[in-house]
Design brief:
By secondary structure, the protein is α/β, with parallel strands linked by helices. It has two domains: 240 residues, P-loop containing nucleotide triphosphate hydrolases (Rossmann fold), CATH 3.40.50; 44 residues, no CATH class. It contains eleven helices and ten strands. The strands form two sheets. It has a six-stranded mixed sheet with strand order 6-7-8-3-9-10, with helices on both faces. Helix 6 links the parallel strand 7 and strand 8. Helix 3 runs parallel beside helix 5 and helix 4 packs across helix 5. The longest helix is centred in the middle third of the chain and has 18 residues. It is globular. Bound molecules: adenosine-5'-diphosphate (ADP) and magnesium ion.
Length: 289
């Protein structure tokens, strides 16, 4: 078995507000993220996804339990740099993550702050921009780019730190469909071709369906964990925590409710179409679907 690059061991967390301690936001989360995997985290608004993400590179520390990043306890403040170098974080709004007026300067910003030598920075910046498909925009002004392009620049900025894992908190939430697709393709390429571990927090079912593993959060707890096919097959369970399922699963589920013997895990459009085709050709008796 591969090692866990992140491991949260029964973590609990509450925000402290002016009125005192707010309700429990993380309520005993134990989760291992295997090195090299692509894990999606899905959950209703307020279920604790962003709070969990912030525990993954020591932006927040648990009030109970322990988080390990590459075996390092995130509460060990002497190791903060090692933790931040291992796990990079990408947030929802690309505008808040861009700091320079030229794309390549923006990507160089973090490694420069780490004291990486200039020739090494040049190499890393070029490499990171190529990895996200934005190399030809290296001399452009970031604020003139589309949302999706800006988000890919933000991802390049994280990649230039050469993290082994990136945690992305709803990175496509502010993007149009083209920008969303480009960002998702970039994330998958980083995982598949470079072996970067990816934790993708999303509320898009179609994005979650593309991960190797899908974790569902509700009220600060992990309520489902498995392959997307396994997790989405539990239609009632997901509906109970306020989530919908992909349209393919919904269609198959309704057919099942109507008494048709179809599998619920034909998740991709192709598999679903194949299932319907099979059903139609196996039941040519004129029964309407
Ligand atoms: N900075 C904060 N101070 C107080 N409460 C917060 C803060 N951030 C989030 N919360 C509360 O914690 C809960 C979980 O929030 P969050 O982790 O952002 O969930 P999600 O990302 O799943 O929408 C929510 O009830 C939210 O209102
Ligand atoms: Mg959130």
């Amino acid at each position: 078995m591969k090692n866990n690059i992140i491991y949260t061991d029964d973590i609990h967390f509450s925000y402290t507000t002016a009125e005192g301690v707010a309700p429990v936001v993380l309520d005993g989360v134990t989760l291992g993220i295997e090195e090299g995997s692509f894990v999606a985290v899905l959950g209703h608004n307020g279920s604790g996804k962003s709070t969990l993400a912030k525990h993954m590179n020591a932006i927040l520390l648990p009030s109970g339990g322990t988080v390990y990043v590459d075996g390092i306890d995130t509460a060990d403040d002497e190791r903060l740099m090692d933790i931040r170098r291992t796990v990079g974080m990408v947030f929802q709004n690309p505008d808040n993550q861009i700091v320079a007026n030229v794309v390549e300067e923006d990507v160089a910003f973090a490694p420069e702050n780490l004291g990486v030598p200039p020739e090494e920075i040049r190499r890393r910046v070029d490499d990171a921009l190529k990895a996200v498909g934005m190399y030809e925009f290296r001399e452009h002004a970031p604020h003139l780019l589309s949302g999706g392009q800006k988000q890919r620049i933000a991802i390049a900025g994280v990649i230039a730190m050469q993290p082994r894992c990136i945690v992305l908190d709803e990175p496509t939430a502010m993007l149009d469909p083209i920008g969303r697709a480009d960002v998702l393709r970039t994330i998958k390429t980083l995982n598949r071709e470079r072996g970067v571990t990816v934790v993708l927090i999303t509320h898009h079912m179609d994005e979650a369906a593309q991960a190797d593993r899908l974790v569902v959060m509700a009220k600060g707890k992990v309520v489902a964990d498995g392959t997307p096919k396994e997790v989405f097959s539990d239609v009632e369970g997901l509906k109970a925590v306020g989530l919908t399922v992909p349209q393919t699963t919904q269609l198959l589920w309704e057919l099942r409710q109507a008494g048709w013997d179809v599998p619920l895990d034909a998740l991709s459009d192709e598999e679903c179409a194949q299932t319907l085709y099979y059903l139609l050709t196996e039941h040519p008796s004129g029964k309407s679907l």
